[in-house]
Amino acid sequence: MSVPLAPRSAPLFVVFNRASGRGDRDELGPAVEAACRAAGRVCELMPVEEPGCLVEIAREAVRRASEAGGVVVAAGGDGTINCVAQAVLGSGCAFGVLPRGTFNYFARTHGIPAELDAALRVLLEERAVPVQVGLLNDRVFLVNASLGLYSQSLEDREVWKRQFGRSRAIAIGAVLATILRGHRSLGLTIESQGAPRKVRTPTVFVGNNALQMEQVGLPEAQAIDQGALAGVMLKPVGRWGLLKLLVRGAMGRLAEADQIVNFAFRRLTVRDRRIGARRVKVATDGEVLWMRLPLHFEVSPHRLMLIRPPGLAEERRQAQANLAEAESGR
Fold first, then answer.
1. Rounded Cα gap, residues 10 and 280, in angstroms
2. Which residues have C-beta within 8 Å of that of residue 152, sequence separation ≥ 6?
3. CA–CA separation, 41 vs 35, rounded Å?
4. What pLDDT, in 10s, does the model give residues 6-38?
5. Of 146, 183, 184, 186, residue with least CA distance to 286
6. Domains located in the chain, CATH noted
7. What phi, psi does 120 have (nearest 5°)?
8. How far apart are the C-alpha atoms of 48 and 135, rounded to whole Å?
9. pTM for the whole thing?
10. Could you count the other beta carbons within 10 Å of the beta carbon of residue 288?
11. Residue range 132-160, pLDDT digits in tens
12. Whether 297 contacts 283, CB under 8 Å
C-alpha cells in the first residue's frame, strides 16, 4: 500500500504512557508542547493513565490523525510503541516515536535518540520512510516475538520490575533467575518454505531488530535489513550451558556457539506436538500473552511509515562490511 508522506506542518497526536520506564511523567507533555509551539506545529496530547486504556486511546489517535492528515506519535517503551504501531499499521498515517523505556531497541535501531529534545527534533524535522514490521498471528512485533524460555524470562522480569523498579541490572537479574530455576524443552514442528521439521528446543526467538541481533553477534542482522526475519533456536542444553550462552551473547559472540540454530525467513509456522495443545504462552516486544496454535510468524505486507533519519540500513551494512574486513585481516 502506498502511504503519502505527511507534510512537516501535519498535526501531531501524541499517545504517551505515564507508566513507561522513566520518571518523567510531568516533563514530557510540556516539552512536546514547547517544541511544537516553536516549530509552528499543532499537537494534541493523549495521556494513558491506566495500561488497560492504551489500545482504545491508540485507536482514537489513529482516527483523529486520519481525519486531520496528521501523525500518530507513541511516547513510551517498546511495549507502548508496539501497541500504538498495531493501531497505525495499514491506516495510512505516519508514525513517530519518542522513546521513554528501558531498552528502546526499536527507536535505537532506527536512529531515534533517547534524549527527549533530540528525539523531538527528529520528529519535527525528518520525513517518514517505510520500515519493516513482523507479525505473529496478525499481531505486530517491531523488535521480537518468542515462545518458551525467552518469553518466560520476560514474564519473570515484569515481576522483578514491580518489586524492585526498572533498570537494566534488574532485567539481567531476572533472566539469571529464570535460567537457574530450570526449564523444559518444547517438542515442536516448524515449517518454512514447505519443509516441516521436528525439533526440541527450550525457546524459539524471532527477531525483527537488526541492532539487537548485532549486539549478540548473530549474522541475521543483515537479513532483517534485506526484508527477512531472524529465527533463533537453542538445542537442548542445561542450566550451565544456558549461562555460558548468556555470557557469549553479552560479548557479542553468540553465533560461535554450537548450541545455537539461526536462520532467516519470511514466513514460519510453529506447531506444538503435544496432543490437544491449543494455546501457548508467547511474548511480543516484551508483552506476554496466550495465543492460539499454530503460530504463524511472517513479514507484514504493510510497512510502517516511520519518521526517522534516512539511510540507516545502508550505514549498518557498511559497518558490518568494515568489521568483517578488519577481522579477516587479523
1. 42
2. 178, 183, 281
3. 8
4. 667 899 999 998 755 554 556 899 999 999 999
5. 146
6. 12-133+302-318 (3.40.50.10330), 139-299 (2.60.200.40)
7. -65, -35
8. 25
9. 0.85
10. 17
11. 999 999 999 999 999 998 777 777 666 66
12. no
